[in-house]
Amino acid sequence: MIAFIEGKIAEKDPTFVIIDINGVGYEMKISLTTYTTIKEKDSYKLHTYLHVREDAQILFGFAEKEEKKLFLNLISISGVGPNTGLMVLSSLSATEIKAAIVNGDAKTIQSVKGIGAKTAQRIILELRDKIAKEFDGETMQVFPSNTHNTIREEALSALVTLGFNKNVAEKSIDRVLKNSKEPVSLEELIKLTLKAT
Which fold has domain 4-62? Predict the structure, then answer.
């Protein structure tokens, strides 16, 4: 099992990162939370999870051990695969996920693409006691504003990579941008669009 990978960041976008270790590039799927942490970094140590299936071996990377732990808790639930687990971590902050589980807030969990009512209830039922023990009411992370003019294109690219229809994603992004009174960062735009789609 590969526990972590540390090296130079060769390439990154909101859904994946490639870390160069002595000329070998390791590609990892990442959440929006991890992207927010590493986007200004040149090198980083990512905690990893290797998902092996018949047709592929997929590496997932996490900026923090806590995020990896939450991911492993989520994918231990029947009906929640690694891609869905990553979608949950990209749509909601760790604090929001934990609060929703502890408070039995199925609606918040269901707001994530790919999570239905039964799966949301299963997540709450199976993880509530475990999360309640470690939940300490952390404060939500606030992302800095980013007024870069390619934010719309980057958000669209990320959503298409996550499996959204391009036209649907474009309409949702435009709707979020239209309704936003303040400038939004790339991460905020993707999160708001994930909730709106």
Answer: OB fold (Dihydrolipoamide Acetyltransferase, E2P) (2.40.50)
Task: Give CATH superfamily name and number for 65-134.
Answer: 5' to 3' exonuclease, C-terminal subdomain (1.10.150.20)
pLDDT reported for residue 192 = 85
pLDDT in tens, 84-101: 999 999 998 888 899 889
What Å distances lie between residue 101 and 61, 90, 133, 134, 135, CA to CA?
23, 16, 12, 12, 10
The pLDDT score that the predictor gives to residue 26 is 96
Contacts of 55 (CB under 8 A, 6+ apart): none
- What's the Cα-to-Cα distance from 61 to each of 9, 17, 29, 76, rounded to whole Å? 12, 8, 6, 17
The pTM of the full predicted model, rounded to 2 decimals, is 0.71
For the chain, give the number of residues: 197
